[in-house]
Task: structure prediction
Amino acid sequence: MANNDSHSGKRLTLKDVAAKADVSPITVSRVVNGYDGVRANVREKVEAAIAELGYIPNRSASVLASSKSKLIGVLIPSLSNVVFNDVLRGIYDIATPANYQVLLFNTHYSAAEEERAIRTLLGQSPEGLIITGGEQTTAAKAMLQASAVPVVQIMGEVDNPIDINVGFSHFDAGAAVAQLLLDKSYSKIGFIGARMDRRTCERLAGFEHVLSAANSLDKTRVITTPEPSSVSKGALLFRELMTITKGDCDAVFCCNDDLALGVLHESKKMQLKVPEKFGICGFNDIEMAAYAEPALSTVRVNRYNMGSKAMEVIFEKITSPGDKTTPIANYINTGFELVTRKSTR
Amino acid sequence: MANNDSHSGKRLTLKDVAAKADVSPITVSRVVNGYDGVRANVREKVEAAIAELGYIPNRSASVLASSKSKLIGVLIPSLSNVVFNDVLRGIYDIATPANYQVLLFNTHYSAAEEERAIRTLLGQSPEGLIITGGEQTTAAKAMLQASAVPVVQIMGEVDNPIDINVGFSHFDAGAAVAQLLLDKSYSKIGFIGARMDRRTCERLAGFEHVLSAANSLDKTRVITTPEPSSVSKGALLFRELMTITKGDCDAVFCCNDDLALGVLHESKKMQLKVPEKFGICGFNDIEMAAYAEPALSTVRVNRYNMGSKAMEVIFEKITSPGDKTTPIANYINTGFELVTRKSTR
DNA sequence: TGAACAATTGGTTGCGCAATCATTTTATGT
DNA sequence: ACATAAAATGATTGCGCAACCAATTGTTCA
Result:
């Protein structure tokens, strides 16, 4: 058991273990780092000493000496948004077994905070970075470029990827929803959006593109707020939509399921028949969507995959840094899928 | 702007900046770390050099030299559980402005994984640790004790806190729910639980304690699974409950709102009148609870507070390490609150 | 104007580890 | 048994920074 507090409070080092095991410090280092070239009896002796002293290697010293950090930096814009839970799970599930650590930063949808986080992160010699979207500041992009660290931009399709892009086209997804609603013979289709980050705007753009082509676009039916989304915000915005359009609206695409659930709730209070008189489509396919009454049509997205894929790509880059024979694709499309349930005809 | 890639790819150091600004490295260090005792003109000169070169300090070297890491380790058992989002937000909201980093580990409800994470974490000289619950292995507890790092155990009430405990009594919360249900004249009250970690078990224990005292406890009405909880699992377990009890059950306490939402959904399919014939109470008060139909009675918990309070306590400990005059309370009760809505009489 | 002091700046050193190369030990084959 | 190769182990050094103390510069007041 650990009893490293006995000697004057000084931190235990390789040297202490080496003295105990009667080998050189570097041999201890080799045991700790799992090198093969250590004879079994020596390794056992060292391991015994480590266990007895309760030695814990100093990562800072290790990183400084080897410039290998086993660290992956992850920047996400929000901790409240459930969407990132799944992404994070995907990241951790790949990173942790490979003995990599994840350093997570919340950028609060701010490019300035993001730049600060990148600067901090780059001071720790990360071996890879996973960042959300492509709206980094010029300075941030320059730092990333200069650092030569593998960078994966996730969630959306990015115009000029810094390095690699894992995500899907929100424009296409928005367009697909618009087409679905048109196909189901809705014609006065509105949009409700909150937060309005880049990806949400792209969803809206794709949506408007299709409606416009079908001559069904009326921008007064587009209700958005920069504030974060929630179920209650969905209800609120829906009331606004109905007021502004005087009820002249027969379907709505909500930029996420929370909002849609709020709309659904509110439409029941208004005694609007869903889906007959009014169609609702959400986005993300959170579990509750399937359990709403009526069950919510929505767009399913591979959130977990986005995270795990991003990590895998980083590992590929790390392991074969200069391998030009099998170049890594710089865009990996994780796709999306329309899920039609009972909230649309 | 940054153009640090020009010189032979070698990492920029304090020395490079010092040369450029024509001062000593240590002065640059002082500027970087925001010490007061640097004359304005010198500071500006140095800052200009930093900006021009795009210098980013090496954190490993800094930590090694100063043994100050500005690092807080956080161990949570699950990334899927939404509960931890709010806790994390609370932690980050306090830590980030203070320039502290958060290193997050997912222990997957495993004490062994937790021990591994603690070992890894302690190798990085964290200035504080936030861990979930009190079920650490003996070795883990010993390491923590020996490390002398402030440790906050969050979420539940812990028997022998390693250091500080921030949370509330799940036993009391479970008891309060049981009492509520009894007060509403339900008498055949069941329990549905998933995952069954320590805190869930305590909720159940409190619940059983009250029912037993009221002579209303029937353990066949307690349905649990070690698997993770979800809405669909709630529906599933509810069907099981109804089968096993042959419908002889008029209320249920679900160990979280997801499960309760599933029960609610299923009870509608069974045409059970809620709350007249059947009462449902959840736990956590997630946003959807208020928007369910009927709105879900549940227990509100200060998740965000648990996180922010934990961080605050750590900062107190860091800033006044030996201050024995104003000792920090070793248990901070964040409380809970019964929220009665329409799913109970 | 010049002490006397305070405020600022600099030099040296070591934090704990792994890379590199040198040395010793062991295995292999004849 | 011996040479040779191969494997295991060790000694030295530097990673980039901040602590510590010394040297310098600036400031204040008589």
